[in-house]
Write the structure tokens for this entry.
Amino acid sequence: MRDVAVIGVGLTKFGELWDKSFRQLISEAGAKAIFDSGIEGKDIDAMYVGSMSSGRFVGQEHVGALVADTSGFSFMHIPATRVEGACASGGLAVREGYFSIASGINDIVVVGGIEKMNDVGGSSATETLATAADQEWEAFFGATFPGLYALIATRHMHEYGTTKEQLAQVAVKNHKNGALNPYAQYQKEITIEQAMNATTVAYPLGLMDCSPVTDGAASVVLCAAEKAREYCQKPIKIIGSGQGSDTLALHSRRDVCTLDATVHAANMAYKQANITPKDIDLAEVHDCFTIAEICAIEDLGFVNKGEGGKAIENKITTLDGTLPVNTSGGLKSKGHPVGATGVAQIVEIVTQLRGEADRRQVKDARIGMTHNVGGSGATCVVHIMEEA
Amino acid sequence: MEDIGIVSYGSYIPKFRIKTEDIASVWGKDGATIARGLGIQEKSVPSIDQDTATISVEAARAALKRCTIDPQDIGAIYIGSESHPYAVKPTGTIVGEAIGATPNLMVADYEFACKAGTAGVQSCTAMVKADLIKFGLAIGADTSQAAPGDALEFSASAGGAAFIIGRDQVIADINHTSSFTTDTPDFWRRAERKYPSHGGRFTGAPAYFKHITNCAQQIMEAAGTKPQDYSFAIFHQPNGKFPVKVAKMLGFTYDQIKQGLIVPFIGNTYSGASLVGLASVLDVAKPGDRIFLTSYGSGAGSDGFDITVTEEILNLKRDKAPSVMYMVNDKEYIDYGKYAKHTDLLYWE
């Protein structure tokens, strides 16, 4: 397997982007990444795009070809493939792009992730997202994602004494980071009281425990590591890539409080990178709900099972903590355009490892991790990156 | 447009009210949170035999009571509403007959979501300016619809206001009026559908706020005015939050909008909303007061007005008809069961 590096990144603003279409968003992110990398169109061997449900959100499927077309590359007939794994679609697309270079087939690949979610109403968006759950055993009986993650949260509270205040602290921290990110949907801090007293969505999760509905796109340019310096001063190498799956339905899991897919994906990535959780300097984890961040830092091995809430309370994961988590603002504050999220996480880690994160820069960041989850944990993708 | 303006005005608000918390309790929602979030404590509910025609008649009669105009001198009636009682058959003829303005007059019913009433004011103003009519009667009124359980159920209410426009005995000059219009599908009701649909959060930034701010800035530019030049400002009020926010965005203070902000007490009267606010301002206005009004209708557009109150307002018999605040306070609470009966939520054969 060849080493692979990220040589370019691009993001659109995340938010309610009423005046930008699906194709405008993905073109903007892709063009920014290509421009950032220094490659030209003729250098691109393949394209991958992660999108969870473009068919339901904007009535458009077949978005692999669409992305190549709208980027102006149709005349080159570049292989363009869509990848879908619910909210992990973006991370999966990066992994597919990574494999295609590592295998020696391609040298340069552009990976995009996109979701335009606001063209449908709130209840339609919730319904569409619920298609990532088990339709027959969960969604059919009325379960939505806030409901499923609320089950995880109540069990976590019961088993480990995790508190609603600790959940709120995740949201407060991520908003504090998001306030420093010019691409974030909500660039404002919130107080612990606002988070605690927000309207209940599904107990114990309130409005401030839930990531928003977001429009946005992200893109990265991947390159065979041996050629990366031809284009880029600061290539960031992908040193580990892991993926895991689990039962689609939450109730079938071994342990409701543990995302075994995360554990599996993380172990795969750590093994490949030949490092341990202690070596990670910062991580972008999948905080679709605040409880998800608590589970993530446990399942990724940063703290023991059940100690996630305490770790948040002890400020281990703040920007100036020993392991900063979600420096971008995470899904909660930066926004969660589901198909784009996994790619946007890579963008944040690359930005940090390049030392270009401005006011949210983590000092001496050397090794970073991304953690992207689909559904309530049926799919997970983990990447570990290091300055090349 | 010197010396063309409002000659008299009247409004009507049904006396029944339902509290936000009573609606919320039916649907298992937290009424206090919703009331705080929407800025609406309670809303007006029409009686079982009240509709846009009867509300329009009440408002028109109130306007006529305050002045000395002969109804036969009214040359046009335009009624803006999205709840005209008939799909085909005008509301305006019913009102014209009821106030004794028929038969030598022009009548048409208008529909432009919540701004059809102000569109009527613009049409009357133009026709007076063209000397086609001596006086015109513009009315905005609604018994607005909301599907049971929909977010709109907390705001959709009933009420209206009527304005006589002319050249003689003008109590408030309409100095400038213009509109800002685009095709923006934020809220709609298809033909033969009982309840409207809406685009959720799309009704905010790209719809209400975009159109009102653009229209307001256009009016102030044309009039050469700044927010601080106005004694009062009225903005369309679908809830208690939007008009406060848009006023702040444009540089108006809460004190300027307070008198015309009626939605917290009676809900959103749709075509009547900004015009009931204007009626409330005229209830207390003094000569020389400058009034700024921007309506909003989904679909979407805003009509803006720069208005100056004249000395003539002192001659208008304002006390001959109830003030808006009097009607706001003259109320009787009903529960959700009666509300369901009054608003035709119940179905029987």
